[in-house]
Amino acid sequence: MDKKWNKIRQDFPLLAEKMNGEPLAYLDNAATSQKPRAVIAAIKDFYEKENANIYRGTYALSQAATAAYESARKKLAAFIGAEADEIVFTKGTTSAINLAAFGYFRWQLGPGDEIALTAAEHHSNLIPWQQVAKATGAKLVFLPLDKKGAVDLAGAEKVLTSRVRLLALAQVDNVLGTEQPVKELAAMAKKQGALVLIDGAQAAGHLPVDVKELGSDFYAFSGHKMLAQTGIGVLYGRRELLEQTRPLEFGGEMIREVSLTDASFKPAPQKFEAGSQNVSGAISLGAAVDYLTGIGLEAIRDREASLGRQMAQGLEAAGATVYGYGGGIVAFNLPGIHPHDLATALDAQGIAIRAGQHCAQPLMDWLGVSAVARASAAFYNDESDVRALVQGVSAAKEFFNGTR
Ligand code: PMP
How far is the CA of 186 from the centre of ligand 1 (A)? Predict the structure, then answer.
């Protein structure tokens, strides 16, 4: 078993680098993932052998680039149980959620309507809805969380009334790593006639996702968090909803007919992809999907949960306060030490973690802290990274407490 994961680790060249002269323990995967050679090779191959602008060429090279781009769309569709024309390429989760918010919900909601969220949302699944609420007169309501940061189902039932037109929540939150009971909540919301948008930024590539089985109407995720390039992501939308969604960007390639004073648009998803697209990004995402499915999402989920558990136990034993953990993500603090100081001390030892508010200020308020340290493992991390983290935190504790 370990041999398999050892071999997988060798696929990620950056993990062999040093940081500050120390072997790198990269534990900031919730911010962005590292890239395997297969993905890097797919990008290189595209630029060495297939690069041309898509849709516009009558020549073979452009047609090959178009085919590679559309083949990536098909792979993404199969990856989440959707149809190819339900996959819109975006810059990432943030732009995917904004497209659903301002292309669809902005025009559907009004005074008296409610948008249900949780206090554990990343800012990119909160601020767009604040803005939609301001523009439409709709109201934001929040599902109650239990002590672990998971939505309390009995409490949720009370909030999810027939006034709620949209439930928008993260499948896995980016600070505590909590996997929400999305399927149950989606069923509850649907019973009341609401639509469901899932922020899958920390879920896609970490566990099996089937949008239909989850009951999601929209599903957003980012390529860079699942082994692909930055600047590419996906908005899945049910076909009939995408048909009703208005484009947010207008220009070349999204049009059907243009006169001096008006234009008609192509059907979804092309009407949302105006201008020259991130072709290599889409191809990198297709290659990432191939790589991830080659390993198996169930195996990835188990591996990351095991590394997360080991980190949480080791950190607690080292005197840290652990606020929560799930998947490969652990949120913690060392009592009396600011997480930024801790992260800086770890940096000097070659350990990369993130400290701060993690784009989740309301969750910090809910936890009653101003900031936390977050270590996040991916399947290609191993026990040596866990050891480095726990030893690094112990050393930092001694250093800050003046015992060293
Ligand atoms: N939602 C969650 C849960 C996230 O973790 C992130 C990224 N940290 C985002 C949304 C935003 O993703 P992106 O920055 O790739 O648009």
Answer: 21
Q: What atom in ligand 1 is closest to the CA of residue 222? A: 15
Residue 202 Cα to ligand 1 middle (Å): 7
**Within its chain, how far is the Cα of 145 from the centroid?**
21
User: Could you say which of 359, 369, 371, 395 is catalytic?
Assistant: 359
Tally of CB atoms within 10 A around 109: 22
**pTM, two decimal places:** 0.97
Give the tokens for residue 94. Answer: 């943030």
Length of the chain counted residue by residue: 404
Q: What is the phi/psi pair of residue 204, to 5°?
A: -60, 130
Hey, what domains does the chain have and what are their CATH numbers?
3-31+296-400 (3.90.1150.10), 40-294 (3.40.640.10)
At 289-333, the pLDDT tens digits run 999 999 999 999 999 999 999 999 999 999 999 999 999 999 999
270 Cβ inside 6 Å of ligand 1: no
Active site residue 359: yes
Ligand 1 centroid to Cα of residue 93, in Å, is 6
User: Checking phi first, is residue 172 left (phi over 0); if not, alpha (psi -120 to 50) or beta?
Assistant: beta
In this predicted complex, what is the ipTM?
Answer: 0.99
Kindly give the pairing relationship between strand 18-19 and strand 164-170. Answer: unpaired
Ligand 1 contacts CB of residue 94 (under 6 A): yes
29 φ, ψ (degrees, to nearest 5) = -70, -20
Angle of helix 339-348 relative to helix 383-400, nearest 10 degrees, comes to: 120
CB of 326 shorter than 6 A to ligand 1: no
